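Please describe our next protein:
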Amino acid sequence: MTASEEFGFGTQIRKSPFFDATVRWGAKGFSVYNHMYIPRDFGDPVQNFWNLVNDAILCDVAVERQVEITGPDAAKFVQLLVSRDLSKCAVGQCKYVLLTNVQGGILNDPILLRLAENHFWISLADSDILLWAQGVAVASGMDVHICEPDVSPLQLQGPNSGEIMQALFGAGVGDLKYYWLREYELDGISLIVSRTGWSSELGYEIYLRDASKGDLLWEKIMAAGQPWGLKPGHTSTIRRIEGGMLSYHADMDINTNPFELGLDRLIDLDADFEFIGKPALQKIRHRGITRKHVGLLISGPAMTGSNTRFWALEKDGQWVGKVTSAVYSPRLEKNIALAMVDADVAALGTEYQVIKPSGNETATVVEKPFFDPKKKLAAN
């Protein structure tokens, strides 16, 4: 039996170009994200965390599908989708952006990559933005072409990722700035490399532009990384919660607005351009929010794994919100969590009861991110 036959949700769930390589290198479990398999289990998640923060890991994140927007009106069209002012987004630059609907609800929080003046990729979290963008284009009357290109990213993340990248691409890659990109060719493999990633650590995303080279690219990176302790891995829930990084469908969804998440910096309501959701967000800014996303410390013994459902939060016997993401941090030696709570009980130091299947615990509102709040590890 081949690796491709060992896991099966059906042919409607797509496999990445790196799928067989991840199975060879020890992937034991997968989940589904953007209608694709994503590796979620390479053994002990705590060891995966230590591999990430001490050395480096290589992750198959081909599920971060790209929506490619080209054509004479591409820049104008992308600005219609995105709430952040892109007038100063240079060719070769990346931006963390929000896409909102007409009610101001968040549809996705992707990374935007500008490859040319009128050539963009929107690197997606888990939602069907290709269909959204194509629908908006029909109504916009703009001259754009929108598709999902043959592009699949890997994430090389961790403190040793810079050395590994230089072993692969030469010393020049070392001056690639945070949230910028470059085109590379590695032994005939066409790539885009960006200084981005979903880990809060130093890291890179390597976008493969030819799916037939997936196995070859994976093996080349793993071979180059062996002197620096590179391990195969998966995106670390521990590290992303430590860093306060948000997960779509967990920490936010279509009914969440940017103000509730403290992401005001990503919506330019006073700039001289229109985007979908702008009038609604102006009204929300005026009237204020009723919910707020906060960080929590949860009492009790160290959690095993992470929450697989939203845990209710109560104060004085009344429901006041829910835990959206929770995990035990072995570095901080604490149970840490992200939660959405009523805004009038969201102050630092506020205590709640967490209603868990294994028994109730006390949770206290604290500052987030929990570790490296200025993102010095990723940005420097």
